[in-house]
């Protein structure tokens, strides 16, 4: 995430405000506020005196997902004790990237009911072909190893949870 604000190149060139403070001090105020709200934020100054405020790429969110290796998707579906929601995505897909935190939230909220699996269609085109993935993101909910629901496009966490629960016929 990048937030950009325009700042004056030098405090001495900034006019004084009515309250006696300089515009440069006022321009620094947003950074102070952001730093207080997000201690890990950093500031850098680019060309033409433009300041960029950036958050670190790593997040402190605890993920409920765990990385496992299976010989193929059929093996995973056969060994799963609960329904499996498969997210077919690509790294270049904007809506797919939007769904990452949503899927983390859904995975945590429904951890007792479903297992969430992500499949990169660029790395595994044969799986994408087998399930006729034509749009991204595509979600397929498998019950007992068989597709029971399929939907495409980005959803909010609440919408996704509702869709999964309706498909499972189980309410939280």
Helices, strands, pairings?
Elements: E1 2-6, H1 23-37, E2 42-45, E3 50-54, H2 73-79, E4 84-89, H3 94-109, E5 115-120, H4 125-130, E6 138-143, E7 146-152, H5 157-168
Parallel strand pairs: 4-5
Antiparallel strand pairs: 1-3, 2-3, 4-6, 6-7
Strand order of the largest sheet: 5-4-6-7
Note the main sheet.
4 strands, mixed
Give the radius of gyration: 23 Å
In round numbers, the mean pLDDT is: 73
Shape: globular
Write a concise synopsis of the structure shown:
Helix content is 33%, strand content 23%. The chain has 172 residues and is of the alpha+beta class.
Description:
The protein is of the alpha+beta class and 172 residues long. The chain is 33% helix and 23% strand. It is built from five helices and seven strands; from the N terminus they run βαββαβαβαββα. The chain has a four-stranded mixed β-sheet with strand order 5-4-6-7. A hairpin with a 2-residue loop joins β6 and β7 (146-152). α3 crosses α5 (157-168). It is globular, with a radius of gyration of 23 Å. The relative contact order is 0.13. Residues 1-31 and 53-65 have low confidence and may be disordered.
Write out key terms for the chains shown.
7 strands; alpha+beta; 4-stranded mixed beta sheet; 172 residues
């Amino acid at each position: 995430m990048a937030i950009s604000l325009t700042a004056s190149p030098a405090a001495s060139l900034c006019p004084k405000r009515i309250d006696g403070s300089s515009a440069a001090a006022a321009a620094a105020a947003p950074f102070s506020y952001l730093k207080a709200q997000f201690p890990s934020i950093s500031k850098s100054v680019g060309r033409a005196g433009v300041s960029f405020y950036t958050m670190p790429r790593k997040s402190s969110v605890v993920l409920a997902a765990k990385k496992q290796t299976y010989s193929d998707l059929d093996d995973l579906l056969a060994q799963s004790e609960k329904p499996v929601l498969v997210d077919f995505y690509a790294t270049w897909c904007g809506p797919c990237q939007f769904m990452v935190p949503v899927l983390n939230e859904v995975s945590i909220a429904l951890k007792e009911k479903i297992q969430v699996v992500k499949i990169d269609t660029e790395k595994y085109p044969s799986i994408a072909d087998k399930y006729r993935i034509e749009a991204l993101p595509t979600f397929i909910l498998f019950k007992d190893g068989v597709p029971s629901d399929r939907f495409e496009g980005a959803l909010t966490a609440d919408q996704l949870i509702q869709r999964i629960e309706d498909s499972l016929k189980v309410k939280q």
